[in-house]
Design a protein that fits this description.
The complex is a heterodimer. Chain A is mainly α. Helices cover about 80% and strands about 0% of the residues of chain A. In chain A, helix 1 packs across helix 2 and helix 1 packs parallel to helix 3. Helices cover about 65% and strands about 0% of the residues of chain B. The longest helix of chain B is centred in the last third of the chain and has 35 residues. The chains are: A mainly alpha, B mainly alpha.
């Protein structure tokens, strides 16, 4: 059984590449029981969304001349 | 400008449309460093023009985008040289090797030796709503800037600029394995910072209000 440290590392990898079926299964099973890792998973997705939105914000910000 | 000089060398497959496809990524890259729409736009414009003019020197080995980003970096560096603010370029470039290779250390702040969370992620109340609050973005920016320089660079190239994983590795000289470790730590740190400085804060405020 993978522990939280290993599961979250997999969750991070899963944000950037396709995981194997076994890995996805391990994550799914783990987060069913572990709310910390479940939070990490949804918050990682949220941070991605926020990062994209942040770039959008930069583009709309009034120009600051250096 | 010297447009006529370059037109001959574009006989290979580098078309304007092909270059234009990369404009959004280049623009975000430039914007992150220059922090100014107009300057970023100029830098990208100059980059595409330079690419168009020197299309013959593009060997196709590293991939078009890598080549374009390389040109863009020069344009941005030129800008800083002109405005005598070289210090700021360290944002993305010169601090690259400051932290050395990824060690075990960082994750011990988050996990105990048996691999369980130290104090694990709590659930966030309505994160979507935060996206619409100006104050949240100040916190977000502060948390992002708090990441160690190299980690911040990797994170930003991937999540803000939108480069692919292998492009980020090429840009930063990270191995595949170090990329995964670095991105994971960036997420752990950013997450914790947002939780401490925003999500738990607003929770504390609400509790105070109801007390």
């Amino acid at each position: 059984m993978r522990n939280c440290r290993e599961i979250t590392a997999l969750v991070s990898q899963g944000m950037d590449k396709k995981l194997s079926f076994g890995e996805r299964l391990a994550i799914g099973f783990h987060v069913m029981m572990c709310s910390h890792c479940r939070n990490f998973q949804s918050q990682s997705q949220f941070m991605r969304k926020a990062a994209r939105r942040y770039t959008g914000q930069l583009q709309n910000r009034p120009d600051k001349k250096p | 400008m010297l447009l006529s000089k370059g037109t001959k060398s574009t006989s290979n497959q580098l078309t304007e449309a092909l270059l234009a496809e990369h404009r959004p990524v280049l623009f975000r890259y430039a914007l992150l460093q220059l922090r100014d729409n107009e300057l970023a736009d100029d830098a990208v414009q100059e980059t595409l023009l330079a690419a168009w003019q020197t299309a013959s020197s593009f060997e196709g080995k590293a991939g078009l985008r890598t080549w374009l980003v390389g040109i863009l970096k020069h344009k941005i560096a030129d800008h800083w040289r002109r405005t005598v603010r070289e210090v700021v370029t360290s944002d993305f470039d010169s601090v690259d090797n400051e932290e050395g290779e990824a060690g075990e250390g960082d994750e011990n702040d988050f996990f105990m030796s048996d691999g369980h969370w130290n104090s694990g992620p709590t659930s966030w109340n309505d994160p979507e709503a935060a996206l619409n609050q100006q104050e949240f973005w100040a916190i977000y920016e502060a948390c992002q800037n708090n990441l160690p320089p190299k980690m911040a660079k990797v994170f930003m190239l991937r999540e803000l600029v939108g480069l692919e994983t292998d492009e980020v590795c090429r840009e930063t000289g990270l191995s595949d394995a170090n990329y995964w470790v670095t991105m994971h730590r960036a997420r752990l740190r950013l997450r914790e910072c947002l939780e401490t400085r925003w999500f738990n804060q607003s929770k504390a405020k609400k509790e105070k209000r109801h007390a």
